[in-house]
Amino acid sequence: MEQKEKNGIIIGVDDKISYSKAFILGLQHVLAMDLYIAPIIIAGLLALSTENTAFFIQMCFLATGIATLIQTGFGIKLPVVQGPSYVPIGAIAAIGGKLGLGAIAGSLIPGAIIVALLGYPLKWFAKTVRKIIPPLVGGTVIIIVGIALMPIGLNNIFHAEGNITDNIFVAAVTASVLIICMLLGRRMHGIGTFFRLISVIIAIVAGTITASFLGTVDFSPVKDAAWFSMPTLFPFGPPVFDIGAIITIVFVYLIILIETTGTWFVVSTVTGKELDDKRLNRASVGEGLGCLTGALLGSTPMTGYSSNAGLLAITGVASRLAIMASGVILIGLGLIPKLSTLITCIPEPVINGIFGIVCVAIVTNGMKVIQPIMIDDRNMMVIGVPILLTIGTTLLPKEVLYSAPDWVNYLLSSGITVGALATVILNLIIPKGK
């Protein structure tokens, strides 16, 4: 109980809640996700037809739901929402463009199995994390995750359809309502706690109503979407196994593991639950099985979503049951295209107004991890230089990436990856003071 109060958690990881409450609390995690953005980008790069793009997004919803149930229910057993990773976008587009859509599934399957095997039976994953990711590194990686995600949310607001002034106003209203609900929950018991628990839903409703007054809400695509659609294995053709593509994706998976480990640190910090060896190895298995599910269903690799980890701190809800309800809802959205289309119609400035506050929550939770550590010159460099490199990577002109080798392109496509790698390496090579 003391740990829950210290972390601002209202509903703990293993607290029992009713199914109806789990549904409502899980729904706001689904509503706050931008999981359809990555597949839309990939579909555009692969020049998929409108029909195939819609089906691709549908499969991402379905795979996300299954992967979330696997990870939260049997893997890490913490409130972790899985979703399509942004890291492999360049690699998948390159492989699909050169070798065909079948080669995408063929390259994803072996890497997913390797990730799972690192957890069990090999049990190598936890040993590696323990050796190279102490609290100093873990806390810095959490801060890096938040900082790297901030420009993504802001750019999505600035470049969303419609007038930029209107977009900023809608995002500001959404974020303000979310902050007010959070503060009410902190300062007032009873009704204040209620507002905090469903703060994301309230913010989304307020933001969407504001956007509707400005004429930037369009639900017409829902009318044309089908009510029901069954998934199929390998919907874009049988897998094609190309050794070069497989090696590339295995490297990408390792980068994703570094990124998602940062998310697990966020969740651990927010919930107060220790990441012991058993939990870490199970998490690797859960990550691998989730990615395998995505490959089989024609989706993309799955990763723990940092934004949802930040929502735990905002709402004070860390219940596994709520997150598993999110997984069930996502599976339903994957089977009912009309509902998944409805979710995608929520204006981008609304989602990203929430996303910005989530990033703030992630950064501050990283600060909590490193707060007890003495910041001498060495630790200042271990913390500061990776943050600088993360921002530098985020601001790196895209034309620089076009002329770089593929493996450099994949690495520099994620500020989180660059920052996390830099933190690990600097902590290993800079001598510790006596």
Question: What labels would you give this structure?
Answer:
globular, two-stranded antiparallel sheet, 1% strand, 434 residues, mainly alpha, 22 helices, membrane, NCS2 family nucleobase:cation symporter-2, 73% helix, 2 strands, transmembrane helix
From the N-terminal CA to the C-terminal CA, the straight-line distance is 38 Å
Give unreliable regions as ranges: none
Q: State the helical fraction.
A: over 70%
Morphology call: globular
Mean of pLDDT: 83
Structural class designation:
mainly alpha
Radius of gyration: 21 Å
Q: Give the percentage of residues in beta strands.
A: under 5%
> How many helical stretches?
22
Can you summarize the main beta sheet? 2 strands, antiparallel
Helix and strand string, N-terminal first? HHHHEHHHHHHHHHHEHHHHHHHH
Q: Which sequence of strands runs across the widest sheet?
A: 1-2
Total E-strand runs: 2
Short overview:
The chain is mostly helical and 434 residues long. Helices cover 73% and strands 1% of the residues. Pfam families: Xan_ur_permease.
